[in-house]
Specification:
There is one protein chain. This protein is an alpha/beta fold and about 425 residues long. It is built from 16 helices and 13 strands. The strands form three sheets. The chain has a six-stranded parallel β-sheet with strand order 5-4-1-6-7-8, with helices on both faces. Strands 10-11-9-12-13 form a five-stranded parallel β-sheet, with helices on both faces. A two-stranded antiparallel ribbon has the order 2-3.
Amino acid sequence: MRVPFDTVLFDLDGTLSDSKEGIIHSILYALDKLYIKEDNPRKLEAFVGPALRDSFRRYYGMEGEQLEQVVKLYREYFVPKGMFENELYPGIREMLAELKEAGVRIILCTAKPEIYARQILEHFDILRYFDYVKGASLDASLGKKRDIIRCVLDQGWVTGRCAMVGDRRDDLQGARDNEIPGLGVRWGYGLPGEMEGCDPTTIFERVEDLKRFLLGQRGYFITFEGQDGAGKTTQMKRLQQALEERGYCVRMTREPGGCPISEQIREILLNIGNDEMDGVCEAYLYAAARAQHVRQVIVPALMRGEIVLCDRFIDSSLAYQGAGRGLGVERVAQINREAIGEWMPDLTLYFSLDPESGMQRNATGGKTLDRMEAAGEDFRARVRAGFMELAKGQPGRIRVVDADRSLEDVWQQVLSAVQEYLHLSRT
């Protein structure tokens, strides 16, 4: 798979390395020299990432000569000792090496003075992976992250598609101000919620997830389709457990729904009191819920390298509204094209079961019918025929599971299809 970005800009502190100890020791040294006592050293974690002068202004109200004096004192400790009280996050070295081998241009873009940034990269023996290093100037004439990013872009170091990776608001806001994607990481020093306000493309929890994404190794999207009572949800939960036992990160979700806005639309769609709803209205509501779900849940999870298991997706709209409501499969597909973009399922498991058998299963379980389930026998027959046509036309993506079997037999069909697709061993 092609890498998503030809050039990647990396922040340093809190993104590539855990520099907290050295930075805090340097700040405490400077404050002590000025006879300023700090009773809460943890407060100083907020200094990791943003420009140093900005942080002293914000948290201690320093300006003018006092500001320059505290920066000078900070460097008295930081230069000989503090910058080396620092360590790479696990997996960073390997990620940089693999990106370099894949031909990705790697640039350091940090608010730390450039001269110190280079020394830190040399200390860790990772300078060789970087095509360019751009940091702040010692006199702070260049210090804000957005300006440093702009400088990199203007100097022509970026080729092709470019993104900025960082752990703080300044990193992602700087990317946004320069109209490039911002990728957040949670292993650094960002405060809860600070990155979300900058509209990041996605936020990664682990170095491994970031690496997989930057190398073009996105996750897998598996959908479960079929009429109600076919046992989709039961088998999806079992598959989630089996995959997690193999070490995969799995995100389980559903349609309509999966996120707050889409769940609200779900309530409208399935409310049995809305029996006057027109088929066209229904199709657009499903597409609207899907558009939000794709962008808020499915795409971010796939970009983190997770396996997404989704109870219903586009094929349900094609079968229920296209065939069941008689709108036509192509018309419903057109309605959904912008909603899903390029994010079609990698694998779809269609649980084939006579619809009346499914209704009997639901009745036995005491389930109350929703608006779609109460649409009538003829409607359910058209929906099943629609699903079968979809499966016939796309045998590579849609695998038919005979759901009129025992739970264990159905599970073996599901497991076999997923093992074949993911190239898993059968242990």
